[in-house]
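dumping the sequnces here before i forget
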Amino acid sequence: MKKGWDIPHPFFGGEEVRKILPYILLIPTFLVIILFIYWPAVYSFKLSLYRIAPFGNRMIFVGFKNFAKLFHNPEYINSISVTVIYVVSSMLITLFLSFFIAILLNMKLPGNAVYRTLIFAPYAISPAIAGTLWTFLLNPVVGHVNYFFSKFFGIQVEWLTTKPFALYALIFATVWKTLPFNIIFYLAGLQNIPDELLESSMIDGANAWTRTWKIIFPLLSPITFYLVIMNIISFMFASFAIIDVMTKGGPGDYTTTMIYRLFLDAFAFQRTGSAAAQSVIMFIIMAIVTIVYFKFGERRVHYQ
Amino acid sequence: MRKSRKKLITMLVAEAILIVFTIIVTLPLFLAITISLQKPETVFSYPPKLFPRSFHWQNYVEAFRLVPLARLMLNSLVIASSITLGKLFTGTLAGYAFANFRFKGKEVSFALLFATLFLPAETVMILPLFLIMKKFNWINTYWALIIPFTASATNTFLMRQHFLTIPRELEDAAKIDGASPMTYFRKILLPLSRSMLAGASIINFVYAWNMYLWPLIVTMEDRMKTVQIGVKMLIDAESANNWGVIMAGTVVALAPTLIVFLLLQNLFVKSLVRSGMKG
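..and the predicted 3d for all of it:
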């Protein structure tokens, strides 16, 4: 009763075929990876070594001049420092809050399923929509969060167009959007920690929180390490949408991060050589992140 | 008894913090829905209202009129589904090769794939990828929005990891029964991986649905854009004045992924953790 796929195919059947088959199986993946990741990477490296006329196809080889120029360009240096401030502060706030909330959710209090479901919800929301929601909430005329801040802290500002509030606004949206992702991973990690250990650190004495921080947090360090890597990637790149919707890099270039700078130089100002050099720099940063992850991460994934 | 009293207090404090926190996190979504149903005059009332005073469906009609939201939703659906299917196709095949076969160059190809694990091509590579799309004549087409994202290291490793957990004896038994490697793959391996495939699908779908930067630069005409861009088009069209209409469009754009997520949360969470924690 052999039909269709069941019949040993002359090509996919025999023992010799087991030797070729894996290569065939890899073709689709490698076709995509080579065409759309390796080729662009090499291509941007090549472009970064040229000066390219904005209109027309004139290309002049300039060596590493594009890179040298970038590091003397106050706009670019600024974008690096904006990125570092934005990434580090968003990350610290997100990690701290998510660890804290994960501990609470792990106590399995009454109503836990409801809290969990609702707290996880922003995971499904895109950065662009997170940006839109917070643009609304911080709107000086109609925004509820703006109203809250003016009522309770006396802060009445144009959030998205004044320093340093534009940066705060971005961080609000970023933290809100990323919290569920981090909480999900911390919760998964907490499930591997014996209950007695959790309970004893939570209940004994007034300094329960300090003890939790000192005992439980180190146990979750492999997860924290993974989240640091994932958050760096997400805040450096996916956050483009949040910035584009909320501040467009402004006021001035106050919130212009490296990815936003790259976008402006590549597509608004047509500085192809410079933008290619910026791509290469980000490519190198990601290579370093990847190497760090595999050097220090793999060993620490398994704990206990 | 002192210990249990302390325990009770800890629990009450924790409960209170959780409730407040849940409200804060949920509020943006709740308010988006509320505002999307209000007349312009209520939107501008001061202090802002927490609960809807009206059911002003007109905002939704207006949002669909200002921006071709229906078309953008369709684009997003086509793109996200195709990327999801593509990733499952390439990922299962390559995962099978890495999990069940020994071949020359396995380590090298594995390393080549691993190197791309943390490289979000849709952001880091925008410039060279855009120029390549130009060479292909793919600008402003579905191809540019789909094909570059139809394979990823994450998916391949997720599949490989799962296939490794399936007992080798099954493959041996299938071989004795005369099944070819592809029959074993189709008839035994894939059906045994159903829940993993479902989990990978929804994660890939949400990821693709939420893409922003790449669709922004690679599409020229409004009718080729995605719903994520649509929300921004709405803000620009309304010049951020009628928030009822903008929030209506936002609710439309976030509803599909949010509903899927709320319905399948456990699957989501399990798959997300599995895709992150290799091993």
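The longest helix of chain B spans residues 2-36.
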